[in-house]
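Hi team,

Filling in the usual template for the complex we talked about on Friday. All components are listed, including any nucleic acid strands or ligand strings, so the model treats them as one assembly.

SUBMITTER: L.P.
PURPOSE: interface mapping
COMPONENTS: three
RESIDUES: 1063
SEQUENCES:
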Amino acid sequence: MTTFGQLVFSGLLIGCIYALMSMGLTLIFGVLRIVNFAHGEFLMIAMYGAWAVTAFLGLNPYVAIVAVVPAMALFGVVVHQVVISPGVDKPHLVLVFATMGLSILMQNVALMFFSADLFDVPPMFDGQSVIIGPFFFKAELLLGFMIAVFCTISLRWTINSTYLGKAIRATVQDSEAAMLMGVPVPRIFMIAFASGSALVGLAACVMMPLFSVFPTVGLNFVLIAFVIVVLGGLGSIEGALLGGMCIGIVQSVSSYYIAPAYGQLFFFVLFLLVMIFRPEGLLGRKGESTVGIN
Amino acid sequence: MRDSLCLSAMAAVIALLSSGPVEAQEPIRIGILEPVTGSASKSGTENWVAMQIARDMINDRGGIPNHGRKIEYVFADVPTPAAAISETERLITNDGVRITAGSGVSPLAIPVSQAAERHGVFHWETAGAAEIITRRGHKYTFQVGPSARRYAEAAVDFTVDVLTKKLGKPLADLRVALLWENRAFGKSVGDNIRRYAATKKIKLIYDEGYDQTLTDMTPIVQKLKDAKPDVLLTISFPNDAILFQRKAKELDFYVAAHVGVSAGYSNPDLINSIGNSVYGIFVSDFAVEVNPKALAPETRKITAEFIKRYQAKMNRSPAGHASMAFAGMWGLFTELLPKAKTLDSDTLRAVALKIDLPEGSLPNGSGIKFTNHDWKPNAKDFGQNLRAAIGVWQWQKDGHNQVYPSALATHEPVLVPLPKWSER
Amino acid sequence: MSVTSKSTIETKPRRASPGRWWMKPGHGSVSWLELALLVACIALVVAPVPHSYQDVINITLLWGGVALSWNIAGGYAGLISFGHAAFFGIGAYTSTILLVNYGVSPWLGLWLGGIFAAAFGITLALIGARLRGPFFILSTLAAAEVVRIGALNWTSLTGGAEGLWITPTKSIANMVFASRSAYVALVLGYAIIVYLVSKAIERSRYGLVLFAVRDDEDAASAAGVNPLTARTGAMGLSAFLTAIGGSLFAQYFQFLDPTYVISPELSFQFALLAALGGLGTAIGPALGAIVIMPLSELLRSYLGAAFQGLHLAIYGGFLVFVMLYLPGGIASALERSTGRSKETP
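RESULT (copied from the run log):
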């Protein structure tokens, strides 16, 4: 029983961190209706940033959030202006392939500047865990979980209660009508993309104490992010959190009771099952998957 | 008078021509194929650096002994098997190389050697450990590096000979667990450990492969915790080794002795990622600091110079595969090429088959003796180096110290059983 | 016949269908460009080209054939898939397993591989019947990963992580040739066949049905077309042809490793070649392969030794640029620059 509990709790915590990483992707999709195939590389760049701030300025990775998040937001603005907005008017596959090209570019630029070596930041409490009952919880996991939940709540509050949030909701519902109502839609797109990028920056700071960074690290995470986002419902922030928790637990439990050799197989199967039976995801709007983004 | 002047002049010219160094000869061009981009780029880059040092060092010493010809490399990046074939073909047909070497990891070594063999080109493999490399009926492929079998046997022998005594448990009572990453290297070493352990009557209480893209090691560590092993044998690459160690500490998974095989655990950067908990881990791989007594004095100097140059370039000591890349090329330069009158593949092959060097001859402690369909366990085997010396070393506070086999050991194993996490 | 400008009354900017920019259901006979390309390809096969170039030519033609196959689903039917490496792998492994374990000639084995792949493709299309856009794309990605992980772990069948290899006993029956030129000829034959199939679809009623379903599914079904059968058929055919390409690949490379043969990277490459060349026409993927493959091989060969990763960085940047500024791909750019449709006899 302890084993099962440990698996579920650990899965839940890491799942929320995966969710945090995926929130940017779902926000970008919800507002701009595009899938950013370079998402894994945004995470990679942000992780290098978090590592650099920690290694060269001696700051704690959580403190580094203050530097990394705005930097990633700025990066998002640049990418949006240069890559995304020329493609927004075109058929969606243009941006699919453009972001893929961007991902290859980013991976190899990172390889050129940082080489293939792995970089890490030192762990808190020398790597040992907080012990609650019979269960072990790494401090960074607990912190990450709290940050993810806090982030979800803040995003929800922003979207519901601020003018910006209202503008975003209007854009999502009907971008022409919003434009007619005076919402600066192109700027909203840019803000949404930059925010998505900033969220990735936040996730990177949370993940840096847990994972090493190297140029192809994005590949390990991007598929997880896609699955979470679609599972939760593209565009739904709470859906991403829920989806992340599901994925974390599924991976943890299935790897234990079946076999760890299958790696990500279980949640791909889960993903396909969801696509068959509930394609809009757990919290998505019904019919969204058939409308697509065409 | 004039005749004798002429004669003396002629004699002088003849003397000059026949005694002078043959630097006028062209350098020997060797095609090097390593993955410096893609998922294997870390090993590929390290191998490439090591091989370049070998070239520089031999050229500094006047080139190949006996000929004096210098070495020149033609390099190609081989990130995928398809690229491996294209680039090998290109080096052979476009650049005219007649000797190739490489290749980073087994999935790349297999197509590289395949392409070389198709053109009848001599291939010198330092890295790929898969056993099928030497069992495909090739004539010109020589695997101077160790096969997966040697890594496995070193780990198991160490467990049987040393760990049983240090842990004070007879073999029948020893609980041994095996964890292997499920790509080519991990799987072949895992298969060999399983097979060899069975011959030693060891029953593995846990034997699982895992996907190396797994980002959460909780289920694996938890399962191992439940199995309660005394000795854990793992084959992991750098990223998963780090994740595993951290998760083991997080969940307080205790094992009395941990033997890692090559790759992840022999990576000198490991200490940067997991700090002091690295001490006490055993690694089945080439020695990082070979017991000087095992090497001839000349070889000792070569090894020292290699390590110095490598450290200057990379800011860390060489990992096992990098030392093997250097030693393999050094062996080619000092033992094979000097004795080859011509560079056609049949001559090189004949010379290679005649080499009989005991362990300790190469800078990393290996010897050279290739199989020639005369190996009892498998008659198909050709070109495997039976003297690639894999031992076991341990991460200790004063360095990476060889602890097994006793003939090569420089230190005693310490920290057996491993202290609890809180004390590491 | 071609619609070369976007409708001026654009209510929603994002609703432009993927087809209208470069959709040209071909009518009429073979164009000059096609003829020229055909002659050039045949010349490359027959002429005594240096061996190393033959390798690039081989890959280009093979990848071109697979990109054309992909295009039947992605370009004609609008079923953008990032999972075609699974079909490729199924073809490659089926014919190889049959050859190595049972001595079945690949000439037969490739048909079986194609059939299995087609069955898998049809299943995928049925699973994704209600999915559009990124949902469908990600489903294909997930399905391909399932196949890859399966191949990696089903060691007794596929050789698992250590891979599967063909020992070259040269014979025509085994599809193992001594001369490189024979392979190039074979692959050219494949590419031409897929090209002809594509053209035939373009001109047929089935093609019109596919375009209709791609461009406006509701209107199409209102006009009496069954979108499900159209899409399923397209995916099945595309999978079948891709799998044959996989078998040919296996015969040429003689070594299969699941991590590389059924990888997302490979799937992206097939899709990219078609998109860069121009979706929705037969000439598009052909052009894409002819331009991009040699370029990426050359980039790697000449820059690979220099700065680690530079060649791929250039490749990635180039992709971004072309996709953003030449979204119709090379085919539509060519068309615009020559100022006339390519369908003139």
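MY TAKE: Residues 32 and 189 of chain A are 6 Å apart (CA to CA). The radius of gyration of chain A is 19 Å.

Thanks, L.
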